[in-house]
Amino acid sequence: MLSRLKPHLAKEGRRKLAIRLSCRAAEWQDEIEAGLREVFGKEDSKNVQVWQLAPLTEKDVSLAAAQSGLTARDFVNQVEANDVTALAAHPITLRMLLELAKDNQALGKNREEIYAAGCELLCRDTHQSKGATARLETTAQQRLEHAGYVAAV
User: Fold this and answer.
1) Which of 26, 29, 31, 141 is least crowded, fewest Cβ atoms below 10 Å from its Cβ?
2) How far is CA 92 from CA 98, 116, 138, in A?
3) Do 118 and 127 meet the contact criterion of CB atoms below 8 Å apart?
4) d(CA 18, CA 20)
5) pLDDT digits 0-9 by tens, 3-38
6) pLDDT digits (tens, 9 = 90+) for 40-59
7) Which of 44, 91, 39 is nearest to 67 (CA)?
8) Is 78 exposed, middle or buried (0-12, 13-18, 19+ CB in 10 A)?
């Protein structure tokens, strides 16, 4: 990526350019950081900054649950009882858990059921407003089946 970007960056252009990359801390590659520092200048540490996002806390999860119209304590208890705290610690998967809880008033019986329901939730047409004509010709269940087939291949 950096080797392709480098020739297109005139010194003047770099001042106007801002790039934000994100990934899980365990997947961050030091080579990317070193390459960015080389391209954008080692002399000024403001040009390249690395921030590590901390996982969401129980307080964060409770607040998100309350703002979603759920009883925060009940939601946190379900998360803990189903051993899905790792999912609740990240904003994207927390949103999935909140949607599942709002739809069903319970997360599910176990991690497998929660994961399966979450996958189906991801297959919904989220850009379609309620009551509008479907934008996609397949159902969420059909899309999930197709995704399962592609994953198996």
Assistant:
1) 26
2) 10, 16, 24
3) no
4) 7
5) 776 676 666 566 667 677 777 677 778 888 888 887
6) 776 666 777 888 778 899 99
7) 91
8) buried
CA distances from 63 to 51, 73, 96, 125 (A): 24, 10, 15, 27
Q: Where are the alpha helices (DSSP H) in the chain?
A: 2-5, 11-16, 30-40, 58-67, 72-81, 85-88, 91-104, 111-122, 140-152
In whole angstroms, give the CA distance from residue 100 to residue 63: 17
pTM: 0.66
Q: With CA atoms as reference, report the closest residue to 76 among 93, 91, 63, 95.
A: 63
| Chain center to CA of 97 | 12
